[in-house]
Structures are given as structure tokens and as C-alpha cells.
Write a structure and sequence with these properties.
Length: about 60
């Protein structure tokens, strides 16, 4: 359990640094953004898929 928590913390720090220095996470092509009048709707579908794939790969590596 400790190994998993440490790994998750390291991954969060790496993701935070990457976003801080210009990785457009949340603003990728394919993310849905609708603005009409005074309301807006935003759903980062491509970002969700990308994060899901990365987490699946990382979890598969830790299971071995």
C-alpha cells in the first residue's frame, strides 16, 4: 500500500510540473466546449481518455 501511495504522489507531482510548464492538459483538440449567451459547457473528453490510458498502463506495470 505504501508503494502505491508513493507512486501516486510522484505521478501527481510530475503531472503538476508538466501542466505548469505548458502541457495543455484540459485544452486538447477534441475537448468539447460550448458557449451560448451567459452559459458555457466544457467536457474534456480527449483529456479523460488520455489520462485513462496512462493510468491503465501505469497500473499494468505495477501489477507485474
Amino acid at each position: 500500500m505504501a508503494r502505491l501511495l508513493i507512486s501516486a504522489g510522484v505521478l501527481l507531482v510530475i503531472a503538476g510540473v508538466a501542466v505548469h510548464f505548458g502541457l495543455p492538459l484540459g485544452r486538447l483538440p477534441g475537448d468539447i466546449r460550448i458557449q451560448r449567451g451567459h452559459s458555457s459547457f466544457y467536457f474534456p473528453i480527449v483529456t479523460c481518455i488520455l489520462v485513462s490510458v496512462v493510468l491503465t498502463i501505469v497500473s499494468a506495470l505495477f501489477r507485474r
